Amino acid sequence: MKRGRDKKPHIGIYGRRNNGKSSLINALAGQDIAIVSDTPGTTTDPVKKSFEISGFGPVILIDTAGIDDEGDLGAKRIERSLRTIDTIDLAVMLVTGDKWGSYEDELIKEFEEADIPYIIVSGKSDLQPPGKKISEIATERNGKRPVIFSLFDQSSVQRLIEEIRISIPESSMKKSTLLGDLISQGDIILLITPIDVEAPEGRLILPQVQVIRDILDNDAVAIVLKEREVDSFLKNSGVKPALAVTDSQIFVKADASVPEDVPLTSFSILLAREKGDFDSYIAGTPAISGLSDGDRVLLLESCTHHVACDDIGRVKIPRWLTSFTGKNLEFDVVAGLDKVPRPVTDYSLVIQCGGCMITARQLQQRVRKAVRAGIPVTNYGMAIAWVQGIYKRAVAPFLKVETEETDYL
């Protein structure tokens, strides 16, 4: 399931057909935003609903197809529903009466393997009061009794909202900062932003906009220049920035232009540290130097965009890696949150983009299987810095690294 630009907490609603998933969403939203029907299978594909839960805050709820759908088409719907687990911060599993079987067991297994917190809700309690079996199973599996829910009991809606508040990870709610811990009030931050074929007409790309906003939020000063203006600006102005941030694609030019005593990094690396698996990126980046002939590299773009002739993921990074290693490498590029075409163990390296358009949870879920399988992972900006010989400088603002204590810088 593809993901838009909204970074609100994502909550997935799962359960069998006709268990009342859409009704539950409408109750949380306080309005009819999901189609409700007594006919099983009304919801056919995962559908995102953006709204504010009263007393909680803005969220994205994902209404999924029934996990007991039937036939070949039903199997595809179930597959799409299960794939949404990689995009959510919290799961709500809706059961009715005393119905619990392999469908529910499989869902719990999927939640636990993805390390997703979940709530078990006993729905339609006015029609089918929850049995002892459901209460015992929920307590055994999740450590909590199920939330009893009825459309005709407003207090049950409030109980569910409170359980969501308790269960959702704090990290999905807090406002993060890209460089707030690196800069101080009044600092001058130099942003080097090339305007090339991939730059959108009349505006900056999203990571650049996000960094500018973060600088302003931290009461610092942003100076935005194209790469060819940096040398003359620094010479004529006498300004010494507290930090310089560049587009990763022009690391070499930025490295030459920005004085050595000014910290330098990239927009992509800032994003990697803010919400990526930064420790795994640090550990995995050096694997670039160990790639061999025939190795396969997976590039993960977490957005979809018009593909330019010199696209960063499809053209530039493969070209730079091939040139740097001198090896014949194979590359797969997956855009958005689409399914990876091969088992992750087929890859010798996974390179994830900055992920400016998705949540931290979604970004980390994209590389989770690779990390667990021991496959090296890195980030676009860190990979580019490595092959261009300025990795140490690019990560130095975030790490206290002594050259003699490391074997990878």
- Main-sheet strand order equals 2-3-1-4-5-6
Order of helices and strands: EHEEHEHEHEHEHEHEHEHHEHEEHEHH
CATH class of the largest domain: Alpha Beta
Query: Per CATH, what is the topology of the largest domain?
Result: Rossmann fold
Main sheet overview: 6 strands, mixed
Low-confidence stretches: 1-5, 34-42, 305-309, 401-409
Q: Radius of gyration in whole Å, from Cα?
A: 24 Å
Name given to the CATH architecture of the largest domain:
3-Layer(aba) Sandwich
How far from one another are the termini? 38 Å
Q: Tell me the name of the CATH homologous superfamily of the largest domain.
A: P-loop containing nucleotide triphosphate hydrolases
Q: State mean pLDDT (0 to 100 scale).
A: 85
Q: What spatial form do the alpha-carbon principal axes imply?
A: elongated
β-sheet strand percentage = 15-25%
Number of strands: 14
- Compute the number of helices: 14
Task: Return the structural class.
Answer: alpha/beta
Helical percentage? 25-40%
Q: Can you give a write-up of this model?
A:
- The structure is a single chain.
- It is elongated, with a radius of gyration of 24 Å.
- The two termini are 38 Å apart.
- Helix 3 links the parallel strand 4 and strand 5.
- Helix 11 packs parallel to helix 13.
- With 409 residues, the chain is of the alpha/beta class.
- The longest helix is centred in the middle third of the chain and has 14 residues.
- The protein has 14 helices and 14 strands.
- The strands form three sheets. The chain has a six-stranded mixed β-sheet with strand order 2-3-1-4-5-6, sandwiched between helices.
- The chain folds into three domains: 163 residues, Rossmann fold (3-Layer(aba) Sandwich), CATH 3.40.50; 82 residues, Rossmann fold, CATH 3.40.50.11420; 130 residues, 3-Layer(aba) Sandwich (Rossmann fold).
